[in-house]
Amino acid sequence: MKLAIIPARGGSKRIPRKNIKEFCGKPMIAWSIQTAIASGCFDRVLVSTDDPEIAEVAQANGAEVPFLRPPELSGDHTGTIPVISHAIRWQATQGTPATQVCCLYATAPFVQADDLVRGLELLQHTGADFILSVTSFAFPIQRAVRITSEQRVEMFQPEHLNTRSQDLEEAWHDAGQFYWGYAAAWLDQKPFFSNKVMPVRMPRHLVQDIDTLEDWTRAEWMYRSWKSQP
Q1: Contacting residues for 1 by C-beta, under 8 A, at least 6 apart
Q2: What is the DSSP letter of 143?
Q3: Which of 53, 68, 156, 228 is 20–30 Å from 88 (CA)?
């Protein structure tokens, strides 16, 4: 069984009710749910939440919410892996254990069905434990600077002060959209960053963390601009 699990806690602090706040005409979580369904990858699309209102919105947009997440997995410091593992164990109690599982974030309005399909194909054919969505940094990380306690500027890697940008290795970061993995890898808490993990590369214009109101506004601008293209 191929399972999509969308974690959606109710206690967002920086953007209250973030997971169901309207984003470009829909509750934020609806974008992830509807893309997961449209991909055709999944036997079930589950939302793991501790919040009855989120559960109601999720169900109205096509997801299943067969349980409410327990309080011990709903705190500010709860990680992704325990939440996904909890849902995998719940699925096993239903008589049809999950084999391949995708954690799809509720705040990923740019996620594309084709990318979920690409991730599944990589998982099935490469021997990887996990498939991770990534995007490239817009600026060479080797030229990054820090602001010191004296409010001065210094380079993290001063040896690259005069290195041409085109001579520096390209760097990538987690796009924060989805992680495909085998159920056993989730349950065994295998590491996300290892030689058993493969990337799905995302264009930078379809990646935006949404942790603050500034992020939210930027994401809406990006989304409307993207959708206005011919």
Answers
A1: 43, 44, 91, 96, 97, 98, 99, 100
A2: G
A3: 53
Structure tokens at 137: 């940094």
> What are the residue ranges spanned by the domains of the chain?
2-135+173-227
CA distance 101 to 184: 9
Give the integer Cα–Cα distance in Å for 7 and 179: 12
Contacts of residue 62, defined as CB under 8 A and 6 or more positions apart, other chains included, come to 33, 34, 37, 45
pLDDT along the chain (230 residues), means of 10: 96 88 97 98 97 97 96 87 96 96 97 97 96 95 96 95 92 96 96 94 94 95 89
Rounded CA-CA distance 225/19 in Å is 22
Q: What 3 state SS string does 115-127 have?
A: HHHHHHHHHHHHC
* Secondary structure of residue 150 in the 3-state scheme: coil
119: its two tokens: 């991730």
* Cβ neighbours of residue 48 closer than 8 Å, sequence gap 6 or more: 5, 6, 7, 8, 67, 69, 83, 84, 86, 87
Q: Which CATH number fits domain 2-135+173-227: 3.30.230.10, 3.40.50.720, 1.10.10.410, 3.90.550.10?
A: 3.90.550.10
| Residue 185, both tokens | 């890898």
Site of tokens 């206005």: 228
User: Residue 173: which of 193, 148, 144 has the closest Cα?
Assistant: 193
Tell whether pTM > 0.85. Answer: yes
